[in-house]
Structure formats: C-alpha cells, structure tokens
Input
Amino acid sequence: MLGGMTAVTLNHFLPLPLAIVLAVVLTMIIGAVIEILFIRWLYKPSVLRMVIITIGVSILVREIALHIWGEGVRALPYFTGSSVSSINLGGVYVSSQVLWVIGIGALAVASLTAFFNLTMLGRQMRACAANRDAARLCGIDAGNMVTLSFVLSAAIGAIGGAIVCPITYVQYDSGTPLAIKGFTVAILGGLGNSTAAVGAGMILGILESFSIWVLPTAYKEAISIAILLAILFFKPSGIFGSAEAARLKEF
Amino acid sequence: MKGKKGMVALGVLLAVFLSGAVAQAAEPIKVGAILAVTGPASFLGAPEARTLEMLVAETNAKGGVLGRKIELIVKDSGASPEKAFSFAKQLIEEDKVFAIIGPSTSGETMKIKAVAEEGKTILLSCAAAEAIVNPVAKWVFKTPQKDSDAVLKIFEQMKKMKISRIGVLSGNTGFGNAGKGQIEKLAPEHGITIVANEVYDKAASDLTAEVTKIKAANVQALINWSIVPAQAIVIKNARQIGLTIPIFQSHGFGNIKYVQAAGAAAEGVLFPAGRLLVADVLPKSDPQKALLVKYAKDYESKYKDEASTFGGHAYDAYTILIKAIEQAKGPDKEAVRTAIENLKGFVGTGGIFNFSATDHNGLHVDAFEMLTVKNGKFAIH
Amino acid sequence: MVRRHFPVAAFAGLIVAIQLATLFTGTPYYLTQLTMTAYYSLVVVGLCMLIGYAGQISLGHAGFFAIGGYVSAFLTTFDLQHHRGAFVSLLEKSGALVFRHDVYGGSLLTVHPWLACAAAILLTVAVAYLVGGPVLKLKGHYLAMATLGIGIIVYRIVLGTEFLGAADGISEVPGFPLPGGLLITGNASSRVSNYYLAWGIVILGMVLLLNLIRSRVGRALAAVHGAEDAAEAMGIPTARYKLHTFVLSAVFAAVAGVLLTHYNAGIGPSEAGVMKSVRYVAIVAIGGMANLWGALSMSLVLNYLSLRGYFGTYDDAVFGVILILIMLFAPDGLLRRHLLSDLKRMVSRNPAEEETP
Output
C-alpha cells in the first residue's frame, strides 16, 4: 500500500520509472525505521510479541495514510498500453500490465533466491532464521539481519504495490487484506521458502478463482482463510516445507 | 492495591465527565452530523463532512440563519451502526441538537431511525435505501435519489435498446446490496431476465473470474452495482476479456477521477446520475444549473478535489434544513418538520424536491439523467 | 474473606456512585454510553481470562460477539408467519414464539428472545469447541493468525449473507424481556434500570471469573501459563483446561453480543471486524494481561471514550498505539510482583495517547 501510494504521489512530478524506484527506496527506509523503532532494541522478543507489534504498526500506518492521502482511490497509469488493450495468448486475453507483474515478480523471486543462496549476506540471514543463537556465535550480527529482512520485505512489498496498482488501484486500507493473504501464502509454502511461496500463491489464487463457481463470490476471502486454518491445523510446516525444518525454528 | 486502581479509574472518569459537562449558552443552532468519515464508507462520509463544513462556514459568514449562527457537530461513525446509535443518543439527549444530518449508510440510518423518532429530532439521512422512508417515520427524511429510481432509469434505457437478458454484478457493501435488491425486484415487471447474478468483495482487485462468468452466461448487457475501486476494475476486466456488450453502472459511478483511472475502458459506460456531474454542459434553461455549477466550483476551489454526488446529498440535507428553518421562522422542531414536509419545487443537487406527508424523499425518476463517458468526460447520453 | 470481596464491593460502589453523580448533576444521558460500555467490558474480562490466565491469545473474539448478536437479532426479527409448518406450530404451541407488533403497525411472529439467546449461546459453544480444539494446539504467531482467521471468516459470512442483512446488518431488534417487568432496550425511559442491569451482569461475570481463578482450575491454569510442559508432566490436563477457558470466554463475548444487540436494537458487520478484536486485545493488554480488574477499569474508560467519539477520526489509531506501546514496554512482565508498578506506568502513559483530538 505504501509503495503504491508513494509511487502515485511521486508520479505527479516525476517520470514513472523514477517515481517507482524512489517509492521503493522510501518504503525501504520506512521499513528500516519501523524495525529500529519497534523491534530492534527489544531484548529477546517472542515471535508472538513481534506479531502483535506489527499488527499495531500496520494499523498505525493505515491510519496515518488515511490522514495524509485521504480516502480516495488512486492508480498509476498502465506501464504500456491502456486499460482496455489486451494481448491474446491462444484465446486467453491478458492485459499487458499482467505481463509486467509476472515479469517483475519472477525477477524479484529469482534475485531473492540468488541472494539467499549465493551471497554471504543472504546465507547469514538464513542462518539467523534457522537458529539465532548459533548464528550469533558464528559472528553474525543478528540484529542487523532482522533490520535487513524488514528492509528487503518492505522493498518487495513496495515493488508489488507499485506494479499491481495500475490494475487494482490503491487506497489507504488496501494493505490489510493483502497482509493476511500474504501470510496464508507464506504458511502454505512453508516459511522461508520464496520459490515454494510462489507456487503456494498460485494454488491459492486458482482455488479462490474457482471457488466462485461453486460458492457465492462474497465468501471468496473466507475460503482463502479457511485454507490457511486447514493448513495450520493439519500441516503447519506448509505443503512444500518439511516438518523437520519447521520444528527447528523457535517460536 | 486494587482500591488504588479503582481510584485511578474513577479519577479518569470524573475528568471525562467534567470536560464534557461544560454547558454552552443556547445561542447558535446546533446541527449534528453522523458521517462515516473513515472506514469502509469513507467515500461517502468524507465528502459529506467537507461539504457540510464548507456550507456552515458560508452560512455563518453571512451572519447565520435568522440572525443565529449554525454550530456543526460532526461525529465520525466509521460506518459502524453501534457508534451511530451511541452518537445519535449523545447528540439528541446531551448536545440537544436541533437536527441530525446523516448517517452516510443505510445500515446505520435504519438503526437510529427509532432513536430519532423517540427523541423527536429531525433526521436528514444521506443514505439511499428505500426502507429509510418507507414506511414513513415522522421525523426521518432522506436526500439521495431512490435506488429504485436509478434502476428504473436503467430499465427504461434497456427497453429503448431492446435488451432483455442481463447479467448483474454487485459489491458486498450496503450500496451494492440495496441496488441488487431493487434490480431483482423490478426486473420481472420490465420484462428483463437476470441470467447471472454475482456478488464480489468491495476490496477485490481482480474481477476477471466474475466477468468471465457473465460472459459465459451470454447476456445482452451487464449491470454493475458497486463503488470504487471495484466498479472501475469491472469495466477494465470486462473489456480485457473482450466482453463488448453495453455496461451499465450505478449512480455511484459519478466521480470523474475514477473514470480517469479506468481510462479507455470507461468509454461508453452508461449510468444514471444526478445532474451535478454534467453541470457544465447542462442547458441554460435547466433549473439546477446555477446551483450545481456553484457547488462544484466552491467545493473544488476549497478542497482541490472534484465534487461528488455524495457530497451533494449532504448539501441538499443542509440547504433543505436551512430553508425549512427560515420558512418556520425559527428553530422550532415541530414547525420545521412540517415546513420540510411542505417544501415543493426545492432545487437541490440531487434534483427538484417535492416533499409531502407520505413522501419523505421528494425525488422521482426524473431526478436522474442517463449519462455516459465520452473522451474521458461525463456527457448526457 | 473481606479482602476477597472488597474489590467487588468497591466496584459496585463505583457504579452506584456514577449513577448518583449523573442524577445530581442532571446528566443521566451519560448512562446510555456507559451501558454500552458495560457489554463491551464483558467481552474484555472474558478475553482477559483467556489471555492472562490461560496464556492463549485470541484475535477473533469479535467473531464470537457477532455470532451471539447476529443469531439473536436474526431469530427475533425473522417473521415466521409466512413459514407456517409443523415445526413452527410445534414451537408456537410450546410457547417458544412471540407475536408482536412493530412500530409501523405490522405484525410479526418471531422466536422468543430467551430462546434466541439460548440458541446464540449454544451455537457459540459449538463453534468454540469445534475450532478451539485444533486452534489451541498452535503456538505463538500461528495461534494469533488462526484466531484472526476465524474472526475474519465470521466477518465475511455476516457481510456476505443476504438474510443477515449483508452490509446493512439487522435492524429493529426488539428489547429483551427479563422477569420483573424489566426490558433490555435503549429507550430513554428505562435508562437507569438498564445501566444497573448491564453492570450487574458484568459484576456477576467478574465474581464467576474471580472464583474460577481461585479454584483448582485457576491454579492449574496458572501452572499451564507458567510452564506448560511441566504442568502436563504433573498430570494437569492442560489441553482441556485451555479449551474450556476458550469456550468460556467465547460465551462471555456471545452473551455480550446478544444483550448489546437488543440494547442497540440492531447489529452490523462492523461488530465482527478485525479492528474490534484487536481493540479487545489492546484493552486486555493495557489492563495488565493477567489482571481482571485492570482490564475492567481500562475497558470502562477506553470504550466509553471511544463510544463518545472522543478520539474522532483517530479511533482505530488510538488502539493501535496502545497495543504497540504495551507490547514494547510491558509485554509479559505482568504476572510477577511488580505488576502494580507496571500498571501505574501504563496508566500514567495513558493520557499522552489520548491527547489526539
């Protein structure tokens, strides 16, 4: 939401690509500030405590956004083409913006995977996620890693917000339902596995879209949450994650 | 130890009482407003609140009404009925307001209808539902055009275009729900069959699945009854999958910003709406023209934002109230209430109001004009 | 014994004192919002039992509130006159139905409020048992998200279901008759009796919870909260106690939902919203987690201010800020002895947050 909103605002006096880049950078800074203000200095916070703090922060951000931007709905122009133009792919009509979303999304996942597997920093981050104390023993600054993870996820969220906002529009409260859906997808894929999360996201999207042929559309969101509950009840490690890996993480 | 806590709580509570209990001399006329400034219906409440603030400032700058200033008390209900209930009680019993403008949504209005009746306070609702004024409650009025009239206007247009098989989409807000109900109720009388009928979430970001379902049902036209952003998404998705049938929208489509957001997809969309949106292109002879142009200009210059028909509902509620106070020669609740009932030919943003003891809305089908979008601008169809 | 009953008596005294104060200052209208506050407080103390004493968080309690309110509202407004069948006439003969006139002179045949209330509570118990079992096996943020999810599902169902009024909710719910000619209704004429009724119910709930805490169950819960594995090893059926507390707190929420719906003469989907659930948790948190009296007094103050529109358009933000501050500065040190100093700190911080106009 922040990414989309900032991009729209910046787009008033900057060219589109520059506005998006700047919006992403701004959101990253906000992510870092939130982490430093609310999480970093806590002594050994439990995950539950952090979750509640982030819920509180998300409410706060939403309310601040309401008072800055008002209740109006905004949108960025389509990157290419217009709102009615679509590309016919073998009988299926796809808007050009959808291709942009898929393309940039794929790029983001690829670079994340590369980051986690190939760079030193990425490996350090994974080490922290697996076992904080052990990571610290190896000389990794766990605090910095958490800040970095906030910045990274803020960046990805902002990119997402900016590229889908021509399609979906953005409003002060458009972030909250996405957060819950995002969590559902992350759990479904198994936490800490971005490739699996993509698969899980697709499964969820397809299930949701098909559900409206059987059930009234108004229940669509209830269905994705029911799926979340079912996964939590029966296979908390996610459908792609291994139970062992999940047990290793401390909650 | 527990006693101490009790004392603290008591202290805080007393402070609250004291801060609220400072009585004001009854100089200005108090007008309460319960509006959904934030929350899911803020698209209604926020422009309504801004419009009222603007109008009250205007009245007071002119020296008030009958020499008395207006004091406006706006309460943000966030579209929650329980808050509307609480605020209505507070405004009537504690602030002793002369009249209440709002609430913005039908659900809230229905919950405080009885409160206004019990408190014998004029309630000028800015919500559309038929049930607000049918059955008629003595103290309850409403200014928005009836949903049923909007639907009638669409059906009239369909008759001209020889359309009889339609698909209906609606959002899961009070607005969408009311429109859907009227469409279902009135369709059989007008020889129209609803082949597909879908409800979607107000925050839905992609409705391709829903419009595909409509396309599969092989209909002649699509009616979508929702508010932004979904209503713009519907037309975009529909055009993207190559659905070329006429698309009708509700009167909620009336905000040029969303038309711009929808871009080329909005072209040719048909929707019934009050004349505010086409104020500039109305013929000079139109009785509403002068008022509409002024409201749009004032609002836009003050808030740097396009005036919407929703703000117009509050505009009408306020001006009706002021007019009735003037006619009743003073803020006497019973006399003003009767004065509203006797208002005839009152020009507002929503249309020409003709109230009566049995009609507490005063608007009819002709309050609507069938509009369309041409070159990114609203135009009369 | 005196020590035990003193807080209850003191609180009852406070309730009477407030009523007398409004009487002598000629401001009885304050009682309306205080009555609504009482019902929200009932949810809060029930939730406090769950969070503070059983150590389980729930971000879905507004859902249970809504189940109670909606079931009762639906049953007492749904006209059965056009659905006459064997079952309806059987209900009618057994006296489970009432025939009444609405304000416009129309007539309605509906389920008796008492039966509707019983149905609401039964449904809540059933739902709470059904979801409580698997949900309470979860820990940490999984538990938080699962309960949040349950709340959202309830919200989606009431928002998307036609006969529950969709986004408009249910209106024109009749009052709730009690023995002795009392009626739970928002009418100004029965304001004082309703004020005492509502707070009487809260005090009753408090006494019930306080006794529970001092009982064997309460001590077992304390052990569960302290060290669940150890408690289990001692032979305490931890899962069962947790589940029962969950159901109990859900019932508190549902009863509050039923009664407030009859008081307000209606209910809307906003009562089931996530923000409502978060708000209840925030109040329990600021009240001191495992401190029923703290939760009660904070609920009294905060709900009352919120219902008066004191926070204006910052209503949700205020509760978000409270949640953040509590979680940052006093997350779980509240079970220990320095509970009082923690609470004092929170109370003294409180005015700063309320300065937002």
Remarks:
- Chain A has two domains: 1-82+92-170, 174-251.
- Chain A has a mean pLDDT of 77.
- The interface with chain C takes residues 38, 42, 45-53, 55-60, 62-64, 66-67, 176, 180, 183, 187, 216, 218-219, 221-222, 225-226, 228-229, 232-233, 236, 251 of chain A (CB under 8 Å).
- Residues 71 and 159 of chain A are 22 Å apart (CA to CA).
